[in-house]
Amino acid sequence: MSDNAPRESPAAAKPSAVELAKVASNYLAGDIAKELVDGAPGFGKPSVQLLKNHGTYQQDDRETRKAVDGKKSERQISFMIRTCVPGGKLTAEQLLSAMDMGDELGNGTIRLTTRQAIQHHGVVKGDLKAFMQKVHANQMTTLAACGDVERNIMCCPAPIHGNSVRDEMQATLDTLAKHLAPRTRAYYEIWLTDPDTGEKTLAAGGAEVEPIYGPTYLPRKFKTAFALPEDNCTDVYANDLGFIVVHENGKILGYNVLAGGGMGVTPSAAKTFPALAKRLGFVPPEDVLAIAEAIVKVQRDFGNRSDRKTARLKYTIHTMGLEAFRAKVEEYFGKPLAPCHPADVHGFDDHIGWFEQGDGMFFYGFNVENGRVHDTGDFRLKTALRRILTEIKPGVRITAHQSLLFTDLVATDRARIADILHAHGVKTSEEISTLRRWSMACVALPTCGLAVAESERVLPGLIDSLEPEVAKLGLSNDAFTLRMTGCPNACARPYNSDIGIVGRTAGKYTIFLGGRLLGDRLNVQYKDVVPFEDLAREITAVLACYKAERQSGETLGDFCHRKGVDGVRTWADQWLAG
Ligand code: SRM
Ligand code: SF4
After folding, report:
1. How far is the CA of 519 from the centre of ligand 1 (A)?
2. For 134, left (φ over 0), alpha (ψ -120 to 50), or beta?
3. 126 pLDDT band (50/70/90 cuts)?
4. Is the pLDDT of residue 181 over 50?
5. Which residues line ligand 2 (CB under 6 A)?
6. Residue 5: its pLDDT value, please?
7. Dist CA 155 CA 497 (whole Å)
8. DSSP string, 458-489
9. Which ligand 2 atom minimizes the distance to the CA of 445?
């Protein structure tokens, strides 16, 4: 068995600039503390990379970039801050505080993410420390919300009591999240020292400071999710590490372990690809921590540290081969892995609507369009949420579909919530279309530095155009995922959806078809470089084809998969021409 101490990776001969920054940082400290008070609006390059591990990204509002006197464009630097919410579970007070922080130090909005976490935008450098301290006071952390570490771990957030399987899964997630959390003291030293006394904690150092990660952490981001076979609401196959709960008669027998899922693609790098996680083996409940640690350590030691484009676990597995990877994991795990149990995902629930909780109380799944909580004109979602959270004081969960569950409600709360929403110009979940309910868009412009096209800001309008067409076709009750991103990095997981729309260049998109709600199949490119203005009619033509030729009970994704994109395209183009 390996001693599992961090070792030099095969690719360490020419480490990337980010690796060099990590090596020199003494466990993620670097020059962040010094640069934080240097009076400049932003940080230097190595610190910008290190800061991601602390949960913050240096950005600029791309719409305010201006060329001054014909010189280089001027950037107004601000920061995106991501806060971890393991399994999406938080309290009404925590969500209210997060909204306060957005108002006081951010851009007045918050965003629920596709990984059940919270993002703030528009925080200026001078407010970063105050922001982190507020997050800490709120009993939350931004540490490892981004960066080359285990990220926010996902799990079905539905509070179904008396279901020990869900309770145990959620408890296992909490234990795993703590186990894989970075141990560095730099976070506490930089952000959480007393600003008045300047009281310092001990400097980080020594081999034991990061027993799992070592001084260079992981080669790349690492994502984990738990799912139930009957409810893959976390898209478990899109994660580096996935656990499918295997249960019988209300008892967890163990977990099917999946490895190597990931969506991001870099079009300029042909060697990049989206991948579903591979089924690796089965472990009993008591081995979850050990197998997760073994896989993380294999990735730590064998992931590519010279090329970040191919550094995710999916590429490590691709390079090693699945069998060699499994053997290495078994070596680190210390014993052979049992073969996977036949259990696999077969259901998906977004938990939107009104449900019994199993303890005499109820929960309400409330769709937040693209996860953005804001007050704009007559649409005052932020104020409505404040009232629901303060007057009703529900428990709160964030879903992997950028939405909210209000939990521990009594029957009369249903009308109270609807009244509050209506008083603020917001529709209830029952009043929005199935199409809108199953859609997601990533952040994209104006904050995301990688966006090549719009996403969050244009998807609502696209759905406005599609809704009447879907109704005309009689498909208003059909559930299919429509996911849009402003670039191929795929933050809204478009590559396993029924319809994926991925930003190609300004105002133009690639359409993908043939994934499905279950999230266990990648879709296929259908049309490329489609102008935004043409998306509604192109998608309507696909839906018309589905309506005309689907078999009984067939979903949109399954239909497109069966007919093939070429067949759908031929039919749809004739329909469009006619
Ligand atoms: Fe993401 C980078 C937003 C989920 C794949 N993602 C980014 C950055 C930080 C842009 C950057 O690097 O400068 C985006 C911040 C934009 C902004 O202004 O806020 C960003 N990603 C998001 C969020 C907020 C999208 C959302 O609408 O909710 C999601 C935050 C999740 C969280 O709470 O942790 C988010 N990102 C995802 C997902 C979905 C998932 O994890 O289930 C993916 C696809 C799965 C995967 O990881 O492969 C995803 N984001 C990426 C990638 C491509 C990674 C790759 O391996 O190629 C990047 C770019 C990168 O890492 O270089 C990226
Ligand atoms: Fe930005 Fe691209 Fe992610 Fe959208 S998919 S948030 S545009 S990195």
Report:
1. 18
2. alpha
3. very high
4. yes
5. 442-444, 448, 450-451, 455, 485-487, 489-491
6. 58
7. 19
8. THHHHHHHHHHHHHHTT-TT----EEEESSTT
9. 7
